[in-house]
Amino acid sequence: MRRCIVFFISIPLLGRGDDQTWEDRMKAGSTLRDNGRYLEAVNAYRTALEVAGRASEPAIDRAATLVAIGWVRQLQGHAHEAEHIWLEVMKHSEGLPASLRANTRLLLGDVYMERHRYRMAGETFSDCLNDFETNQEQQMVPRVLTRIADAYTNQSRYLEALPLLKRAMELLDHAEVPGIDLAIVLHTLANVYSRLGNVYEADRLFERSLAMGESLLGGEDPRLAKPLMVYARHLRRTKRKQFAKEIEARATDLSARAALLHQTVNVNALRSGR
Predict the structure, then answer these.
(1) What pLDDT is attached to residue 7?
(2) Burial class (CB in 10 A: 0-12, 13-18, 19+), 55
């Protein structure tokens, strides 16, 4: 199982050389990816593909490598290519560990959400949930439940989303440090209540989730841009246009910083000649 999830781990970059194992090359790619050096990360993962066939479990290693390459391509803004890679992995997923299938489906579902294909996202996340539960990876269950609920919310299936979010909250109540997962559940629940017209409960949960997010991530983190924009839409629905404009301006500013950071990373990667 260690081999199929190694691309999700970040450790210091290892030295290069022909004697590197598949694990070495995957870890190198993960470190480059986490540092925003995407072109180099893809190259590192491709060298891992070269040695995957010589490993004791070539099918698993090859699939894990392709999933990692797809992830980087998504980070580079090539969601369509990432989707194609992951679908190819899933076509040959029989015999792969449940953890690898689940993580691949999780990434696929996120791409479907990004491209507004909410029905496919919900179905993919549901399959992902079954894999995680089969593999007894309980720490992932609240995250996937929240994603399914978000997909349902975007299909106006609010009453189906509510029990999923309540279950996610119950599971997180038993976690020692629920952290950002709880903030995301609260935010998604706030959006459901907003759509149902429960303004008081939506306000309370939006404010609580955003405060928690700012505490955990910092007030200037670009990842706050999307939840802030959702909150602004809630404010507009409830006729608080001036406050909505202020929140939208903050969200736009954070989004612009994220875009600038992404552009800087790409320029630096190109300057490296790799």
Answers:
(1) 41
(2) middle
